[in-house]
Amino acid sequence: MTERAPGLSVRLKLTLSYAGFLMVAGGLLLATVWVFLLRYVPERARYGPGPGPFSPTRNDLLEAFAPRAAQAMVFLLVFGLVGGWFLAGRMLAPLSRITRATRRAAEGSLAHRIELEGRKDEFRELSDAFDAMLERLEAHIAEQQRFAANASHELRTPLAITQTLLDVARSDPDRDPDELLDRLHIVNARAIELTEALLLLSRTDRRAFTREPVDLSLLAEETTETLLPLAERRGITLETTGVPASTIGSHALLQQLTTNLVHNAIVHNLPENGTVWVTISAEPTVVVLSVENTGPKRTPHLVSTLAEPFQRGTQRIRSDHAGVGLGLAIVTSITDAHDGTLTLAPRPDGGLRVTVQLPALAEPRAS
User: Fold this and answer.
1) Which domain-ending residue is among 75, 109, 143?
2) pLDDT tens-digit profile of 159-201?
3) Residue 116 maps to a domain
4) What ranges make up the beta strands (E) of the chain?
5) Which site among 19, 118, 196, 355 is 20 to 30 Å from 246 CA-CA?
């Protein structure tokens, strides 16, 4: 950070401004009186029938006025400096409180809040905005810490399994190497899948992608065709309906979003005779992707945690297609990167309904 040369404080500047304004106002008032004296007081005295002069001369009044005017200006200067100093201090007290809170936040303390009392004004708007920023920042950091801890745990698991398999192979030379290689391949594939998911999540958080027109209905058709063999093996029926619905964004990321939702709906379904409904709709300002599936009944509390990283709807039971617990977290990140909204809700008959709303592609105006 660039070092700044010391300067006058804002309180001193306001004090000088108040005093200067008071001096200018007083000077204008005294100048008006001076002009009045020069204009309406006669230069020479007029004598009447009595023994003395009828009125004082202009010079007499000016000589009496000048020292009083100087005294008044000195008084205004002192009054302006003293009063301005206290007035500026009172006005800047909320700013000093905000400054102290900012320094505490810069030192890493995010739990405190300013919470200025009183009615709404500029300082209180600034205070409320700063408190809201601290609250969001604290929640974001806490989320990142949980994510880092979960990611470390998830990455450590395949490495620990690999180490165990290698230790067993070393202690048992007669063990079938093909079985060992198959298990190592599965563990390594899961580690690669997790790493790629983390990289994708980081990419979407940075919004480092090219935007282009994308039709969600085409993505839904491609996804269901790709995952149809998996659905058939698990006895799941895929139903896709919708209309052309174009948005602006990354084709690859939106394809990943659709794939994750349909894959989750297939995997976390009934053991047999389950159904997945994929629906695409278009409204004037948004396009909507809805994925519903049958399955066990879930509480609203459980559903509210499914989008967090490394949360699984099957209580972390692993299978060949259980995933790494980042599917909905990636969906959330992709949705946010495309300025959309994600809604998760349990179905009354069991299962889950996931709705993604994205900004609709603006139609070009006719010339």
Assistant:
1) 109
2) 777 787 778 778 877 777 777 787 788 778 777 776 776 676 6
3) no
4) 212-215, 236-242, 246-249, 274-282, 286-293, 341-346, 352-359
5) 196
